[in-house]
Fold:
Amino acid sequence: MTLFIAETYKIFRRWRTYIGFGAVGAVVILIEVVLKVTGVNFTSDMTRSVQGDFAVFGNVLNGWFITSLIMNSLHIHIPFLITLVAGDIVSSEASSGTVRLLLIRPPSRARIISAKYLTSLFYTAALVIFLGALSLGLGLALFGSGDLITRQVGQFGIVIIPESEIPVKMLLAFLAAVWSMTVIASIAFLFSTLVENSSGPIIGSMAVVIVFFVIGNLPFTFFRTIQPYLFTTYLAFWQDFLVEPVPWGEVAKSATVLGIHNVALFLVAFAVYRRKDIRS
Structure:
């Protein structure tokens, strides 16, 4: 625990740690201000397909809806921000030379690498939670509350979630979002143990995410057969909590596959770190 606290203190002393929070804050504020001005047309377009069959009343453009809308862009901007810290947490010490001093001191390499990995996961969770808290807090303040209307994932139509059920579903959705983003942190962390500069892990991690996204969306039989094994297939499984009923089987499968990726990536990073040469 002492090492974890020390590592957390170290990353929050670096200015690049706050780039992610600043970028998330700027994006959320910009989106919500724009929607406050032009949001009526947006919700009208969304509900146009059902307006002929149903009468839509109430505050459709509310804080819950805005939060779910912003979360849909989670896999676009958050991964890069995560790699800025997770990809730097080990490699920065290698480039500065402090890794030699660190590894000859009493804490074992296993404890050191575990503390650094947990710190990377903590930063990831903090960034996603910050996104959720700011989106929801500002959204409720600007747009008020109400029932949540979302699109049915993978189908045509919409889902209406009563306001009384939204807090629990949204909490579970954000916990799932945190879990999915930890895989990005694990990839960046692994790259950070392999090289001695910070740019390599950042570029490498984003390259992996982009390539896997492209492969997962190519309409070819071969790539469809490997889609179930790609972590990018499950990054948006938080959306499963905002449908009725919640497909718990799919949720469990997604969480398990992402967990396996996390464990495998950490074990490889652990093996690399244990064999790191501190004499060169």
Summary: The beta strands are 148-151, 158-161. The two ends are 30 Å apart (CA to CA). Residues 2-274 form one domain. The chain is about 70% helix and 5% strand.
